[in-house]
Design a protein that fits this description.
Length: 546
């Protein structure tokens, strides 16, 4: 099961990185036709000064024979906004009035001359239309790599001297190296950076790869290529589409010699017992893992409590046999044990939610000096209203409540994770949209599941807490996101009681609320120390924020 799950999630991660990276064969299985632009997430791209044919990436398959070194293209990609996959438009796609055929995987690509803007028109057979202009960005030029050596030693800083025309100050710079993925040649990002004439990429960056080094995935060492891309993300939106991204890119590519880094890692984590709670708190490596120093203002997007298995029944069957008068007799005894958590009014559970939230907020403010915007601002946000809460269809949930009507947005099972996956671009994903609208540095989502364990002593009752948490930030570029400050699970035994003590704070005592919050605070402090030791702040110093 673990292997199957890993394969599923790897496939999804490749799709979310961009349909051009998965190849025509696999992509064809994930491409459907549509005549409804409202279902579509559309990415319109200008790509200037493409690299030589000998680079040989899988992305070039979409261009075929029209690929020519230094030429320019317009590409329009149609992705599923809900679920995973791509769309072929049941209708017409035009660039500068010229009909563009579907290439593969929801992509429409055409070579274009250099000009100030390009008109794009999409019309479905049902009469839906979307038309807009796409403008190219400024060119970019690599003046030198490490002072002219053209050697990328991934154990040393990479110094790039770049030529940036006036006006390009607010554009982003993406740096990539060639990678091999299951026999396919593609680009892997080193990072997205602010536009500057001298870009110094710390050596530790190469220890934090976007793509894990495995048997089937690795950065290409030896003779290779380095690609520097200037990108501009437009504020314009394509009308009548579910979501759209206007993207303009200009490239410069150099042949380089690449050496392998001494070490790489995929994440940092705190896995230990604190206050008898099992803690598993982590963050991705510094490619996707965001240091706490980059976030000051956060929004609580979800704070939910669910109680399950509050009524339980166990059946024991025992048999005994004996012989009398030449006959064998068997007696079977069935014993049914039933136990239930005390019946409590909804208001008492709601009070627990409020006290848990108050303690959680105090813990954050006391330990990390963060600002939390009012929850009412979050729930009133336009994008928040468009979010669908995750429904648990697998557990026997007997109580479900949230702080100030926030939605359950944090998937805690594989089924919920699969339901929440989307192929849309990074800026259109749930966390990213809400972060931009609220003007915050990140979102915090918490789900606390309470489950009554079974004890042999029928009178012993407890609630076992399991706190799932995710603190996410916006993407650093246009491909991957959201970024992650921290995520994980803290779980442990509750405090047993005999079912008779229903004092005012018995619920808080039963779930060991104070010890739970203390374990969370200690684990997060350890994670912050680890990110400092692994150089997260230096790696993020010149990152491009979107």
């Amino acid at each position: 099961m673990k292997k199957k799950t890993w394969v599923i999630l790897l496939t999804i991660s490749i799709i979310l990185a961009g349909c051009a990276q998965i190849g025509k064969l696999v992509g064809g299985l994930l491409t459907q036709s549509t005549d409804n632009l409202a279902d579509v997430s559309m990415i319109s791209q200008y790509i200037g000064n493409v690299y030589p044919k000998e680079v040989g990436t899988v992305e070039m398959d979409y261009f075929g024979d029209i690929w020519e070194t230094g030429s320019s293209f317009v590409a329009v990609n149609f992705l599923k906004r809900e679920g995973v996959g791509m769309y072929k438009i049941d209708g017409l796609v035009k660039v500068n009035g010229q009909m563009v055929e579907h290439t593969a995987n929801g992509a429409y690509v055409v070579k274009v001359p250099k000009q100030d803007s390009y008109s794009i028109e999409v019309e479905t057979v049902t009469g839906q239309k979307s038309s807009f202009e796409l403008k190219p960005t400024y060119p970019i030029k690599i003046k030198s790599i490490n002072g002219g050596s053209d050697i990328v030693d991934m154990n040393k800083d990479l110094v790039l001297e770049l030529e940036n025309p006036p006006g390009s100050e607010k554009t982003g710079i993406k740096v990539s190296l060639l990678a091999d993925v299951a026999g396919i040649t593609t680009w892997t990002e080193i990072g997205n950076y602010k536009s500057m004439n001298k870009l110094i990429i710390p050596a530790k960056t190469f220890q934090n790869p976007a793509m894990a080094n495995t048997i089937i995935t690795s950065v290409r060492t030896g003779p290779s290529y380095l690609n520097v891309e200037r990108f501009r993300i437009g504020d314009e939106k394509a009308p009548n589409t579910g979501a759209s991204l206007m993207l303009s890119k200009s490239l410069d590519t150099r042949a380089v010699q690449v050496s392998e880094p001494d070490d790489t890692f995929n994440n940092i984590s705190v896995v230990e017992e604190i206050n008898d709670f099992k803690v598993d708190l982590s963050k991705p490596n510094a490619y996707m893992g965001r240091p706490f120093s980059t976030g000051k203002t956060f929004a609580i997007s979800s704070f939910a409590v669910r109680a399950t298995k509050l009524t339980q029944q166990r059946t024991d069957v025992s048999s005994s046999s004996w012989t009398a008068g030449g006959y064998k007799y068997t007696q079977t005894v069935t014993t049914v044990k039933t136990r239930a958590f005390p019946q409590l009014p909804k208001e008492r559970w709601d009070y627990l939610v409020n006290t848990l939230y108050a303690d959680f907020e105090r813990t954050l403010k006391a330990n990390y000096n963060v600002n939390l915007i009012p929850v009412e601002r979050v729930t009133a946000a336009k994008n928040y209203a468009e979010l669908f809460p995750i429904e648990d269809n697998y557990s026997e949930v007997e109580y479900s409540g949230s702080y100030k009507n926030t939605k359950v947005l944090l998937p805690t099972s594989l089924g919920e994770i699969m339901q929440s996956v989307s192929s849309t671009f990074a800026a259109d994903r749930v966390d990213s949209r809400l972060i931009r609208e609220l003007g915050v540095d990140g979102l915090i989502a918490v789900t606390i599941d309470l489950e009554m364990p079974w004890f042999e002593e029928i009178d012993d009752i407890s609630l076992t807490p399991r706190m799932s948490i995710r603190i996410s930030g916006g993407p650093t570029g246009y491909t991957y996101g959201p970024t992650i400050y921290a995520q994980g699970v803290i779980s442990g035994p509750g405090e047993e009681f005999d079912g008779e003590d229903l004092s005012f704070d018995f619920l808080e005592k039963t779930i060991r609320k104070d010890q739970l919050m203390d374990a969370f605070a200690k684990a997060l402090n350890q994670l912050k120390k680890m990110e400092a030791d692994y150089g997260y702040d230096a790696i993020w110093k010149d990152r491009y924020y979107y």
